[in-house]
Amino acid sequence: MDSLNFQLTITALVLIVLWHFLRKKSRVLDNISGPPSPSWFKGNYEQVFNPDAWGFHEFLAKEYGSMTRLHGPYGTNTLYTFDPKAMQTVLVKDQDVFEEDDGFIKGNLLIFGEGLLGTLGHRHRKQRKMLNPVFSAAHMREMIPVFFEVTHKLEVALENQLQAGSSTQEVEILSWMGRTALELMGQAGLGYSFDPLTDEESAHPYSQVIKELLPTLIRLQFWQFNVLPYVSWIGTAGFRRRIVNMLPWKDLHHMRDMVDYMHSVAEQIYKIKLRAFEAGDEAVASQIGRGNDLISILMKENMDASEDDRLGDTEVIAQMNTLIFAAMDTTSSAMARLLHLLSRHPEAQKKLRQELIEAKRVKDGQDFSYEELTALPYLDAVCRETLRLYTPASAVTRRARQDAIIPLLKPIIGLDGTEIHEVAVPNDTAVIVSLSNSNRNSDLWGEDADEWKPERWLSPLPKALVEARIPGVYSHLMTFLGGGRSCMYVIQPELVELKKSNTIITDSGFKFSQLEMKVVISTLVEKFQFSPSSKDSEIFWQMNGVTAPVIGKDNHPQLPMNISLVN
Question: Cα 483–472–86 angle (5° rounding)?
Fold first, then answer.
């Protein structure tokens, strides 16, 4: 049987290439300009998706504008866009037509399980419906003390390290941000403690696994998107596992081991929580989080749900994997990036510290409440500007499930000289939505769109930006996407009217991840001075699935930074 399945696998790979080679290529998109293809087999794929792709994305925006045609694998056409109206159609209006790529869904199903990242359609909507009550504004307010408690452990650890050595030390801040994000999600999200945050030796292995997950996945991404969907059905799960074990492929084996570890940890935590629920309310209340963590709330909601709405055990475990991944990789990247920017902009760091010190003086040094934390204007500005200019994920891909029309806010000129106001998209066409180019679109954000300027958020935003109606769920940004597959960690409190420069701004969303970010940054900047390390000129932020800093040719994610105590 294994021999037969192996033959089927090889046959399937041959048929994939043969089918793409022989099928008739649609000529509908040929009038849209774009770069030449370096390869029939991969097209522009590896130019778009590689750790050093920043220059190519910038080139596409400047040379071809907000809608361009790329060459996909096997001689296919791919669209690349950051036009606001096109994004609204793809991600919101026609989101059931433009779904996640099969490779994305199949890959996430294998990595995280049957959670939000690995499901489509009704099943995805059912999971979001079950998770919506978990991310309420009331729950966020309850989590603030937990966030500060964890962050103060980090503060003490860094202070002890400085007091035990020289007054200014080089610290690998990315590791500390990853560990802190893991413990924040552990306690507030899972009711579980991963890391005491005492010293470098106490780090939980999970933090290292997540740090290496996306850099490994980006090296496997071509095969995930363009081969996995065609072979994932062959044989049994056991047979496919044996094939993976047999292949002399280091990255694939490393991915296998990381996924095994993630699932074993999630299953262990889930079993602990199940036993507590079976023992009664007193046992639940005695756990970390006292039963108010996200997964405990989800489990309570799930027990009360109807049979049709209830999630299975594997789906709940998958949500745990997804929560940890989203908090650790995305949030830790954003927090590390912000500290890196503050180290390079000492005037902004000083201004932020002054705001924090003055706000704390009024409270006699006590921790901020939810309302107080979210009302600090410059802290909010540096967070928003960092998430705008340096979105952790740079692009997403959708695939048309039928012929469709994508309208454009800004018409483009076709190769034949005609003005194009909408694009006819053939079935099975991939559409890449550039989040980073949308957030840096100078037509909307102004000529200084490529500059890190927190002050832009302290006055009314450009009229062109507001009128463009960017479909993102947060602050005219595409950082957290939009539509039914936007970032789940969006809190929808009552509308809050904020008066800034006599302008009323309505803020209807607040991010779970940004709340973590504000707690950590406010605590650290008040206490510590951050400055560039001697290796700063060699630091390069790779464009992985989530951006990660490396030094020179060493692809191991790291971010050294000098820190000292504030006088």
Answer: 75
Question: What is the C-alpha separation between 217 and 549, in angstroms, rounded?
Answer: 16
- Given pLDDT bands bounded at 50, 70 and 90, which one contains residue 499? very low
Whether the CB-CB separation of 191 and 287 falls below 8 Å is answered with yes
Q: Residue 450 is inside which H or E element, if any?
A: none
Residue 298 makes CB contacts below 8 A (sequence gap 6+) with 130, 131, 134, 311, 316, 319
Rounded CA gap, 326 and 84, in Å? 25
Enter the pTM of the model.
0.90
Phi, psi of 199 (to 5 degrees): -155, 180
Which residue from 479, 505, 474 is spatially nearest to 492, judged by alpha carbons? 474
Residue 155: CB partners within 8 Å, gap ≥ 6? 523, 524, 527
Query: Mean pLDDT for the chain?
Result: 88
> What is each CA distance from 187 to 115, 148, 181, 228, 293, in whole angstroms?
20, 11, 10, 35, 7
Strand, helix or coil at 567?
A: coil
Q: What are phi and psi of 440, to 5 degrees?
A: -115, 15
Q: Cβ(117)–Cβ(108) under 8 Å? A: yes
How far is CA 334 from its chain centroid? 9
Between CA 79 and CA 392 the distance in angstroms is 22
Q: Which amino acid is at 512?
A: F
- Phi and psi dihedrals of 496, rounded to 5? -115, 130
Please identify which residue in the block is written with the tokens 């998770």.
131
Structure confidence at residue 125 (pLDDT): 86
Backbone phi, psi, residue 156, to 5°: -65, -40
**Contact at 8 Å (CB) between 327 and 189?**
yes
Question: What tokens appear for 111 in the block?
Answer: 């990595």
